[in-house]
Write a structure and sequence with these properties.
The chain is built from four helices and no strands. The protein is mainly α.
C-alpha cells in the first residue's frame, strides 16, 4: 500500500509541475497540496514519529510558507521581497521529499 501511495505522489507531483508551467496555478496548488499529503503519509508510515515530523517540517512546512509569502506579495502587487525563488525551491524540496519518502519506504521494508 505504501508503494502505491509513493507512486501516486510521484504522479501527482509530475501533474502539478506540468499544470503549473501551463499556467493553471490554482489547479497546480490543489495538486501540490494533494502531493504533500500523499508524500507525508508515506513518510509517516515509514519513519518513527520524531524523525517524520522533522522531515515533514523541513520539506513541507518551510516551502509551503515561502509559497504563501510569495502569493501574498504577488497579490498585493508589491513584489518587494524576492520571493520568486520560493517557486523553484518548493519544486526542489518536493522532489527531495519524494526521494526521501521512497528511501524511507524501501529501507523500512528491508
Amino acid at each position: 500500500m505504501t508503494g502505491c501511495l509513493w507512486l501516486a505522489a510521484g504522479g501527482v507531483l509530475l501533474a502539478a509541475g506540468w499544470i503549473y508551467f501551463r499556467g493553471a496555478f490554482r489547479l497546480a496548488t490543489a495538486l501540490a497540496l494533494g502531493y504533500w499529503a500523499l508524500a507525508g503519509m508515506v513518510v509517516c508510515r515509514s519513519l518513527p514519529p520524531v524523525p517524520a515530523v522533522i522531515v515533514l517540517a523541513l520539506l513541507v512546512a518551510i516551502p509551503a510558507a515561502l509559497l504563501a509569502l510569495h502569493m501574498i506579495d504577488a497579490r498585493k502587487g508589491l513584489f518587494l521581497i524576492p520571493t520568486i525563488y520560493a517557486i523553484p525551491l518548493a519544486f526542489l524540496t518536493a522532489i527531495l521529499l519524494w526521494l526521501v519518502a521512497g528511501a524511507t519506504w524501501i529501507t523500512s521494508a528491508l
